[in-house]
Amino acid sequence: MADIDFTTWRFIGEGSERRCYQDPKNPARLIKISPKANAKQSLREIEYYQSLIDHKVPFDHIPRFYGKFEQGAFIGVEQEMILASPDSSKRAPRLGEYLDRPLSEAEIAELHIALDRLRDYLMQWNIVVSDLQISNIVVQKHKEGIRLFIIDGLGGTELIPLSHWFKSICRQKTVRHWAKLCRKITRRNPKVTF
């Protein structure tokens, strides 16, 4: 990737380590940029994405990974930007934004189905999530309903990543994180109960 001034791209958001920008030529792609001196999260994510690709995990509920790049004092991750719908150029709303809307009974039922599918996907493919937060999940609208995607916090943070190697440990971790997520969802919108 040739040197590009990413700061001229549409700013999407930032965390403690990274800033995210949408590719102006392809709205379905974004980059996450970290200073090389503070790229622990990016390096861990790159390694984990490569592991998912090696194990032929489908990217049904996580963004596709297109690679890493280095530019000057920065390291970047290029990945799919989850859009509001497959034919949109706008970012998908975060789960918190979705929960803040006045949801109908039908929308709550649709959300429960989407949550069940996301949980089943994590369990089936032993996806390790270190930070299962409302802010790390986005909602994409389809004709047949909504689909949830985890856009950040993938991979384990442990020094010895046992959850990457042992399915039973990964599942136990997912069950714990999922219970916390459900409580956060209900606190955010008391109409959504479990």
What is the number of domains? 2
Please trace the helix and strand order, writing H or E for each element.
EEEHEEHHEEHH
The structural class is alpha+beta
Into which percentage range does the β-strand content fall? 15-25%
Query: Percent helix among the residues?
Result: 25-40%
The mean pLDDT is 89
Distance between the termini: 46 Å
The best one-word shape is: globular
Structural write-up:
- It is a single chain.
- The mean pLDDT is 89.
- β2 and β3 form a beta hairpin.
- The strands form 2 sheets. A 5-stranded antiparallel sheet has the order 1-2-3-5-4, with helices on one face. The protein has a two-stranded antiparallel ribbon with strand order 6-7.
- 30% of the residues are buried.
- It has helices at residues 40-54, 95-99, 105-124, 162-165, 167-188, and strands at 10-14, 19-22, 29-35, 65-71, 74-80, 137-142, 145-150.
- With 194 residues, the protein is α+β, with helices and mostly antiparallel strands.
- The protein has 2 domains: 6-80, Phosphorylase Kinase, domain 1, CATH 3.30.200.20; 95-188.
Task: Provide a quick synopsis of the model.
This protein has helices at residues 40-54, 95-99, 105-124, 162-165, 167-188; strands at residues 10-14, 19-22, 29-35, 65-71, 74-80, 137-142, 145-150. With 194 residues, the protein is an alpha+beta fold. The protein folds into 2 domains: 6-80, Phosphorylase Kinase, domain 1 (2-Layer Sandwich), CATH 3.30.200; 95-188.
